[in-house]
Amino acid sequence: HVPIIQALFEQVSGPTKLRPLGLMEVLGWTGAALNRVNRTAFFQKFDQGLAVQYFYEPFLEAFDPELRKELGVWYTPPEIVQYMVARVDTALREELGIADGLADPKVYVLDPCCGTGAYLVEVLRRIEGTLRAQGDDALVAAEIKRAARERVFGFELLPAPFVVAHLQMGLLLHRLGAPFDDETNERAAIFLTNALTGWDLANEPKTMLMFPELQQERDAAEHVKRDVPILVILGNPPYNGFAGLAVEEERVLSNAYRVTKRAPAPHGQGLNDLYVRFFRMAERRITEQTGQGIVCFISNYSWLDGLSFTGMRERYLEAFDSIWIDCLNGDKYKTGKVTPEGLPDPSVFSTPFNPEGIQVGTAIATMVRRAGHSGAEQVQFRQLWGKTKRAQLIESLEQSNDLLYHTTIPPLGIGLPFMPTVVAADYLTWPLLPTLFPVSFPGVKTSRDDVVVDIDRERLIQRMKQYFDPQISHEETRRLVPGAMDSTARFQAEATRDYLLKRGFLSQNIIRYCYRPFDVRWLYWEPETKLLDEKRSEYKPHVFEGNVFLFTTGRTRKGAIEPGITVKQLTDLNYMDSGARGTPLYLTPSEGSLFRQSIPNLGEPAQQYLADVDATEQELLYHCLCTLHSSVYRTEHTDALRSNWPRIPLPASNEALLHSATLGRQIAALLDPEAAAPGVTAGNIRPELRSIGGVARAGGASINATAGDLEVTAGWGHGGNGNIVMPGKGQAVSRAYSSDEQAAFAAEGAEARLGMVTYDVYLNERAYWRNIPRGVWEYTIGGYQVMKKWLSYREKGVLGRSLTLDEVREVTAMARRIAAILLLEPELDVSYEAVKAATYE
Q1: What's the per-residue H, E or C state across 47-60?
Q2: How does pLDDT run across 604-615, given as a tens digit for each residue?
Q3: 547, 567, 637: which is closest to 781 by C-alpha?
C-alpha cells in the first residue's frame, strides 16, 4: 500500500542488483529466519499496539545505539500518547467549540515526526470511541478509514519507522473490518518526508528525485503542508538529528526566536536543538496559515526557563491564547532524577528495554490559539514527580483543569520563564552583573586533557617535547601520547602534528591552569591549532599579574545555586559549569588602542555608581563576590539565579560598599589555593580550624611515605572511556566529633555551620585525613563535591604515583579553606541584608 516502499523493494530484490551488493546470502538468512516466525503470535503483538517495544526500538538499540541517540529515536510510552491525544480532544471541544473533537470531519491532524505511528493510531482510536458513543452503526469503520486516508497525517524521515507506521495503521483498519483496498491502491496518509521543509511556496523547478514514486511521495506531502487547513499538530519531536540534513529553510526556522521585543535577548546555544525547529514549524503553521488550532508536543523542558529561549516564550505568549504545561521532570542534571522528597524520579521514557530513559527533563506543552485571538498573559502549570507519573497523567484526565494546574504569570525581567518562580520585586531593579562588568569569557575547552594538561609540570614538558620531536614518527607518537593522534571531526591529528613540527615546542606556553576548584594544574597552551580545542585567544591576553576573574553562571541545569568564584589563572570550560563565564576586573588594551595600560572592565552604570559613592572597581568586584556568597541572597532569589545572570544590589553608601568588599576579599583569599591564608592555612591557625583535616595513620603511628602510606588507593576514581576519569565511592567514614573537636567548635559556634557529624577520609587502608566536617565534605562547586572530585584525579591508578607531602597538606588546607568560607556565611548574610535595606537608586 506504499508505492515508494514497493518501488524500493523492486529495485533491490532482483538478482542483478543483489549480487554486486553481496546481499544474496544475507537475505537468504533473513528469509529463513522470517519463515520460522510464529506469524499469528507476532501480528497479535502488533495488533496490541506494541510494535515498537517488540521490534523497532530494541532492534535499533542492538544494531547501533549511538545512531539511535543521534537520530533522537525514543519510544513514547502509551500512557503519554493516550494522555496527549485526550488533552487535544478535550481542548478542541472546550477551547475551540468543536463538539465532536477529533471526530469532527473538519479537524485535520498532523504528527510531523510520527515514528512508528503511535499518535496516529491513538487519534483514530479516539475518533472510533466518539463515533461508537454516538451510535454504533455499520459506518464507523468506514469513517475511521476515511480519516486515516484524508485528515490524519503523519510525516517521517526514516524509512524503517515509516514502514512500521503503515503496518500498524493497516492492522488497525483490518481489525475494524475496513482494510485498505488493494485494487484502488488505498493507503494511509503517512508520508516519507522532512517535516521541516517544503512549507513555503517555491517558484523554482523541483529537484528530480531517484524514483517517480519518491517524487509522488514528496508532492503528496507538500500538498498537505501547503493546502490542508491543519488544526492540530502533536507528537514527540526528535531531540537530535543529522546536522547534514539541514537545508537553508530548516536552519532558519528558529531565527524568529532569536530576537525579542520586551524580554531579555536570548543567550546560549539552546535554539540550535532540533526540537525547537519542530516547535517553530508547528507554531507558524497554526498561527500564520490556519489561524487557529492546537500544538501539543512532549519535549526537552529546557525551553521553559532557559536563557536561550526568551524569544520563544515571548512569542508563544503573543501567538497563543491558552498554554498548559505538564512538567514531567526526570532531569539528571537539575534534580539528579530525585523528587523534592528524595525519592526516585525516573524519566517518563524509561522502558524495560531502556531503563535509564533520557537524561534531560521533559514536559508536555499544550498551546491553543482561538479564532478570536488576543494572546496569553499567564501559563497553567503543574509538576509531576516519581515513578507513577505516567499513571498520574491518565488519572488526571477525569479531573478539572482548575484542580490540576496553578496559574503562573511569567515575569518579564528574568526572561518570561514558564516555570513558576518567586522573585522579589526589588531584585528586578538591581543591575545584572554583565551590566556592571560587560566583558566576560568562557573557559578553555581542551578535549585532550591527557595530552595538554597535567598535574606534574615536568611530566607535561616531557610529553610535549616527545610530541614536538621530529625524530619520533606518528606511529611512535601514537604509542607515547595516544590522545594526540586520535582524529575527530574538528581535529586532524597527523596534519596538525605535521604543521606543529615545523614550528616547534614553545616552552613559555607551559602555564598554570585552573582545572577544577582548588585544583590548579599545568597546561600547554597551543596558540594556533586545534590541539587545544577552544584556546580562547580572546581570553588569555587578560590573564596577567594583578588581574582577577569572577566566574559565575547565567543559567545552571543543576538544582543548587552556587556562589561565584574568583581566579587569577586561565580556566577550564568545566571549572565551575560549562555555561559559566569569567568576568575580568581589568582588560588589556587591544592592539592599536590609545590606552597603554590595562583599563577597568566597567559598564557606564558602574562608572556612574563608583563616581557617586567614591569607590574603586576592585571594591565593586569584591562586593559582587560577597553578595554571591551570601546564602540568604541565593535562597531568596533561587529561581531568578537559575535562569539568568545574577543581579547585584549596590550599597547606597561608601561605608557599606567597603565593608562588603572587605568580606569579598576574604572569600577571594580563601578560594585561592596558591596563596597562603593567614589563620587558615598559615601562621597561627584559628582554634576552630586547627583540628580539621590533619593526617593520621591507623594505630596512631607516623606516616611512612616509603611504605606506600601516601598512595591514594581507597577507590576514589578510575579511568573511563576516552581517558575520562570516573569518580568512585572511595572510603569516607562518618562519626561523631571527639570531645576536643567539639570543644573547639563550640567556642566559636562552628558546629551548626559545619555539620553535626564529621568524616575520616581515607587515602588507603592505613592513612586518612581526620575530622572533615560534613558541611566541608559535601561542599559543592559546579555540582560536584570539591574534595571528592580532587581525590578522584589522585587515585594512584589515575595519577600513576603516590601523593607528595605537599599534596597531602593541600587537602588539609582545602578542608580548612572551605570550613572558613562556611563560617563566614553569617557575616556575609548580615552584610547582604544591610545592603538590601539601603540600595543605591
Answers
A1: HCCCHHHHHHHHHH
A2: 999 999 999 999
A3: 567
